[in-house]
Amino acid sequence: MISRRLLRAYAATDYLIPSADLSLMPYRHNPALVAWLRRQGAQRVAILTACNPRSHPLSKHENAKRNAALAAELQAASLRHFDASGTAQRGNWPAESSFAILDISLARLDALGRRWGQNAALVAGRDGRPRLRCFTAGIGSLG
Asked: What are 122's strand-pairing partners?
C-alpha cells in the first residue's frame, strides 16, 4: 500500500515534457496538453520512470542504467516516447528522469510500472486532466 505521504508527494510534483514545453500537474486541467496530444495524433500520454523503485533512492548510475533499460524496452515495443522528468515541488527529492509514452494501454503501463518497481505513473488523456495511476493492488487510478 502506498502511504498518504507518498501520494501527496507524487501529487505535488511537476511532470515535464521538455520537447513539448509542457509542465503537468496531477488533477490540474492543462489545455496545452490537449493541443499537444492532438498534434501527436494520440489519445493518451503516460509518464513513467524506472528510477528509485518504490521511492527508495538509488545512485545516479543505477537509475541511469534502469532508465536506459526501460528506454530500450519502449523502443523494442515500438512505443512512441519522449524524454520527461518529475520534479518535486517541496523537499529535497532529486528530479527523476522519465519517459512520456504515447498511447500505451493501461494494462501494459501497469505491467511496466510493476516490473520496474514503481508505485505510480501520471496518465492523461484528451480531457487534459492528468491523474496518478497507482500500481499497488486495489488502488488503481486516483481522481
From this structure: 47, 132
Average pLDDT of adjacent 10-residue blocks, the chain of 143 residues: 84 96 97 98 98 94 98 98 93 88 97 96 98 73 45
122, 130 Cβ separation under 8 angstroms: yes
Which SS3 state, helix, strand or coil, does residue 59 take? coil
CB 45 within 8 A of CB 107: no
Is 58 exposed, middle or buried, given 0-12, 13-18 or 19+ CB atoms closer than 10 A?
Answer: middle
What DSSP letter does each residue of 79-140 carry, written as one string? --EEEEEEEESSSSPPPEEEEEEET--HHHHHHHHHHTT-SEEEEEETT---EEEE-STTT-
Supply the pLDDT for residue 141. 45
Q: Which of 40, 50, 57, 73 shows the shortest CA–CA distance to 121?
A: 50
Please tell me the predicted confidence (pLDDT) of residue 31.
Answer: 98
